[in-house]
Amino acid sequence: MSAGTITLTHNSAAVTGAGTAFTTDLKAGDIIASVVGGVTYTLPVKTVNSAASVTLIKNYDGPTQAGAAWYAIPRDAMNAITAQLAADTAQALRGLNFDKQNWQQVFSGTGTITVRLPDGSSYTGPAWNSFIVELGKKANAGDNSDITSISGLKTALSIA
User: Fold this and answer.
1) Which domain does 29 fall in, by range?
2) Could you tell me if residue 118 is inside a domain?
3) DSSP assignment of 96-130
4) Residues 20, 66: one domain?
5) In this predicted model, what pLDDT tens digit does every residue of 19-67 receive, in sequence order?
6) Can you tell me the distance from the alpha carbon of 52 to that of 71, in angstroms, rounded to the nearest whole number?
7) CA angle 124-131-106, nearest 5°?
8) What is the structure's pLDDT at 155?
9) How many structural domains is the chain composed of?
């Protein structure tokens, strides 16, 4: 936590501090973070007016709160967090796209398919439709005119 406490006023861009050192802790573009009523507010700083006064980029829309603990988040750290969030989101979307492509192949492909896995490796194997095709080539009950010999039986057949 940064030194001192802050007062946040509903619908105001002005933040006042008690025991704060805004001029050394903050600069324009940095973030003031504070928890009010169990909700974390991240408030971008427009100007640092003094050791005990800053102006926010937009009006604070939470409830008025005096004596709130706060901490400074440098703009560079916030940019890094945003960039990492964007990278993680893009990775998740790529994974979902791979999954969609893979399942499409599994469900509707024929013959051998190659599935790409999240770690970059791949798996090659049969599509589900290939099982249907192969099973369709097997003898059906009551339709055995294509059978010309039976060998390798371990149990005797009986005619009913």
Assistant:
1) 5-73
2) yes
3) HHHHHHHHHHHHH--SEEEEEPTTS-EEEEE-HHH
4) yes
5) 999 999 999 999 999 999 999 999 999 999 999 999 999 999 999 999 9
6) 14
7) 45
8) 77
9) 2
